[in-house]
Amino acid sequence: MPNPNTSRRSFLQYGVAGTVAGYGLPATTTATEPLPAALTPVIEKLEPFFTPFDDFRDVSRGSPVPHSLPEAKRREVGLTRETWKLDIISDPENPATLGKQFSKKNDTAFDFPALMKLAEKHAVRFSRVMTCLNIGCPLGMGLWEGVPLRTVLWLTQPKENLRRVFFHGYHNDDPKQIFRASLPVGRVLEDPDNVPPVILCYKLNGEWLTPERGAPVRIVVPEHYGFKSVKWITNITLSNLASANDTYSNGNNDIDSPLKSFAATLSVPGRTKANTPIPVTGYAQVGISGVSKVQVWVSPAGKAWLTDDPYFTTAPWTDATILPPPAKWGGTVTDALLKDSMGFDAKGKPTTWPLKLGKAHWAALLPGLPVGDYTLRCRTIDDRGVAQPMPRPFKKSGRCDIEATKITVE
Known about the structure:
By secondary structure, the chain is mainly beta. It folds into 2 domains: about 10-45 and about 260-410, Immunoglobulin-like; about 55-250, Oxidoreductase, molybdopterin-binding domain (Sulfite Oxidase, Chain A, domain 2, Alpha-Beta Complex), CATH 3.90.420. It has helices spanning about 10, 40-45, 70-75, 110-120, 150-155, 185-190, 335-340; strands at about 15, 35, 85-90, 95-100, 110, 125-130, 140-150, 160, 165-170, 180-185, 200-205, 205-210, 220, 235-240, 260-265, 270, 280-285, 295-300, 320, 320, 360-365, 370-380, 405-410. Strands 5-3-14-9-10 form a 5-stranded mixed β-sheet. Strands 6, 7, 11, 12 and 13 form a 5-stranded antiparallel β-sheet that branches. A hairpin with a 2-residue loop joins β11 (about 200-205) and β12.
């Protein structure tokens, strides 16, 4: 087996320039190191950066799942743009002091035309990966558009005793099916540095939401896992209660941890020829702590590791190449759409890369190996230099295990 400390230059010994798989690849990945030509075929097969509607994974709840209801029923229960109504009320048991409430019961509910009126002045768009807390891969990457929730909240003229915002969507008028989430009011009213606002979302990738994606309106919380981004939103309750009531808390989940960074593979040959360079690709989920590097490491399968180093911190990791922004974004997203989006400049180009709270593709050309079975691992290094799965290695705050993939060399 080659020296495990094989240099990155030996990974990148076959140079190529040009455009591959929609990616506007530079002539070199650094000032001196060319992109490997052997990576071209696998990069050409990479998924689009933005996920087409039909390719989003779905983990919706409900019996029946609300998006499966016939259109006539969806109209009846307010799940179309023409019939949508939103309650924004004070918590009866822990009331916030409000100057105004919006209620279906009193025929004063907030509706879609009112939302669109606010959108004329306040609409925002931002990219964000949608990920389930307990699933090890993203459900899809989207460009989400909506009105900041705080803009709507201020319409209630809150005065005092407001500490938390509770919200839930439509679930068949069955209290046992209601899926709840919540946020401290401070997060709704003010955004952390470089994080978009919480929004009432009505568009994805420049198109109206479909029922599967939460139409007509859903919540999107940029920095949190998907359980906070409740679909088919119908009720917002403003409360003086300090504690959360999230449905996900009932499953021993950490409901406050934001999105984590991690790497995973997309294309790895299960079997390959001896002494032939091995092209691999993957993606990095860019969590709240960012991603500065993706690294890979190949070791003989079954080889024992140090018991006091469960996260392989002393392994001979080698830098992979994080691919640049794509020339074609996919998912009906164009530069014209991006130029008015948060995190992009006037030409529709990202102001930083990789985009935080998004994803990025990576590639590496592994050196040829002798006959045998091997394990490929990959990991991220965040913007503070912290390696995956740290600083939060616990599964209940989001999956971020170091992936291990088998390669057989014949």
